[in-house]
Design brief:
The protein has about 300 residues and is of the alpha/beta class. The chain has a single domain (about 5-250), classed as P-loop containing nucleotide triphosphate hydrolases (Rossmann fold), CATH 3.40.50. About 40% of the residues lie in helices and about 25% in strands. The protein has a 6-stranded mixed sheet with strand order 6-7-8-3-9-10. A 4-stranded antiparallel sheet has the order 2-1-4-5, with no helix packed on it. Strand 9 and strand 10 (about 225-230) form a beta hairpin.
């Protein structure tokens, strides 16, 4: 088993404004495996964004510790540049931060700040565009403002991938996209995670969204880590999920009902494709098909 790339140990964070204080994270201990895809879920205000902002030192622990790829966050005299290159973060609506005239220039923006040679920048930009399914020949010289919402989101993702991060954090990455844009974005994200070995951390309040891509779920509620595990085990906690303001995906509810009716559907099946193939393999054939087979 791979070693963890992120470890938090009794992490707490308190926001303070004058005499007012608010505990945003309370005693959180977790480990994220290198090369995995995990999701941090919970309702608005549960602490999701506060937690991920510790992973690239945008916030420092009030108590406890955070170690990211061997770097201890908050350590005195820490040089943040190596950490920021390791951890790429895509915030909500990243396309609103685009300002360059071409897709190429937008993806190359962060690379120029690293003072890389022109040839290295070009190589990285073209490779990043290919990774997100935007052919450089077709898209590099286009204005990013002429693209669809899903394409703009992928340009923003390419800008982060060009920096060659080992950890990719996405805060509600599909918000504002239509169904086609969401599917398109997650298809390329899955390929990147599988082919590049990048550790992906997805922040969401939508359990249906994370069901098909995440290996592990971490559920936050009022600043506390209340449960964690593979999607099928978290989805099985229907009563607890409701108490935390969440609900299992409709498909998970349906599969649970089928299991209570006697169908031995494996608990690890949580996607529509997985359920379809299992049912296809295990349910009796329709009567007409059965009779046709008997004739043969």
């Amino acid at each position: 088993m791979s070693k963890p790339i992120i470890i938090t140990h009794h992490l707490s964070h308190t926001y303070q404004s004058g005499l007012l204080t608010k505990a945003a994270l309370i005693d959180i201990s977790l480990e994220i495996t290198r090369g995995s895809c995990v999701a941090i879920i919970g309702v608005t205000g549960s602490g999701k964004t506060t937690l991920i902002q510790h992973f690239n030192a945008l916030l420092l622990p009030t108590q406890g510790s955070v170690i990211v790829d061997g770097i201890e966050i908050g350590k005195r005299g820490l040089d943040l540049r190596p950490l920021r290159q390791k951890v790429g973060m895509l915030f909500q609506y990243p396309e609103t931060q685009m300002f360059e005239r071409t897709v190429y220039a937008d993806v190359a923006f962060g690379l120029h700040r690293l003072h890389l040679e022109r040839h290295e920048i070009r190589t990285r930009v073209l490779a990043a565009l290919e990774m997100v399914g935007l052919s450089p020949h077709t898209y590099a010289m286009r204005s990013p403002f002429d693209l669809s919402g899903g394409q703009k989101r992928r340009v923003a993702l390419a800008g982060i991938l060009a920096m060659s991060p080992t950890i990719l954090i996405l805060d509600e990455p599909s918000v504002g996209l239509d169904a086609d844009g969401r599917n398109e974005f997650y298809t390329y994200l899955h390929h990147i995670q599988q082919e590049q070995g990048v550790t992906v951390i997805l922040v969401s309040h939508d359990m249906t969204e994370v069901a098909t891509i995440a290996d592990t779920l971490f559920v936050l509620h009022e600043g506390r880590l209340v449960t964690q595990g593979p999607p099928h085990s978290v989805f099985a906690q229907t009563t607890q999920l409701r108490s935390w303001g969440l609900a299992a995906p409709p498909l998970s509810e349906l599969l649970s009902q089928l299991r209570t009716q006697g169908l031995a559907i494996p608990s690890e099946i949580v996607t529509l494709d997985g359920a379809f193939h299992w049912l296809q393999d295990h349910l009796p054939l329709p009567l007409a098909q059965s009779r046709e087979q008997e004739k043969r």
